[in-house]
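Thread: "does anyone have the structure for this chain?"

Original post by V.I.:
We have the sequence but no experimental structure in hand. Need at least a predicted one for the grant figures.
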Amino acid sequence: MRRVIGGVLISVDGVIQAPGGPDEDPTGGFRFGGWAAPHFDDTLSGFLGEVIDTPEYDLLLGRRTYEIFAAHWPFQTDDPIGRKFDRIRKYVVTRTPDLLTWKGSQALVGNPAETVAELKRGDGPDLLIQGSSELYPALLGARLVDRLFLITLPVILGRGKRLFSGAAAPAGLTLVDHRIASTGAVITVYEQADEVATGSFARETPSPAELARRDRMKREA
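Reply from O.Q.:
Generated one for you, C-alpha cells below.
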C-alpha cells in the first residue's frame, strides 16, 4: 500500500496560497504572492532537498498546481529537481484530462478521495503532494494523508486559500521531526495517530460559578 505524503508552506494564520511568487496564484485579489521566499535559509532548503531527493515517489497534484509545475519544471533542464520531476509519474486530480501535456502525467477523474484511495491501495512508490490547496480538504477529510510536513513561516496574511477549511476529519498526530530556521520558520513533520485525545484542567469539585457557567453554555448551545 502506498503512502500519501503532503507538504505545504503555510503562514501562521493558515494561508498556503502563492508562496513562491507574485504571479503564482493571484485569484481572489491575493496580493502577497512570494511571501515564503524571504524566509528561506539553509535549514529550509536542506529539508526540502531531503524530501525531493527521496529515491522513489510519484507526484500527486491538483490541476492548478500541476499547471504551475508543467509551465516551469520541464524547462529547467539544468536543475536536478526539474530532471527528476520530468522523469517520474505525475497523478493529477482533474476534470479536464485533455489539458495534461507534460510527459508522464496521468489524470485521476472523479471524486478526489475515492480516486486517491484507490491509487493508495495499489502498488508503487509513495505519493508526494505539493501545493494543491483544493485537493487537501478532500484528502484530510477522508484521512488519506499519512504524513504531513508543515513549514510555518513567521507571517500573518489575513486572506487567501487555506490548508484547513473545516473539512478535515478529526485525528491525532504524532510529531516525528522538527527543525527551526534562522529566519524564524518552523518545520514540523507529523504522522497520523489515533483519535483526538481529550482531558481536563478543571477542578475536581467545580465552584458554584463554574456550574452556573456550564448551565448557561448548555442553554446557549
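V.I.: this helps a lot. The chain has a mean pLDDT of 93.
O.Q.: and The helical segments are 42-52, 63-70, 80-87, 112-121, 136-141, 208-220.
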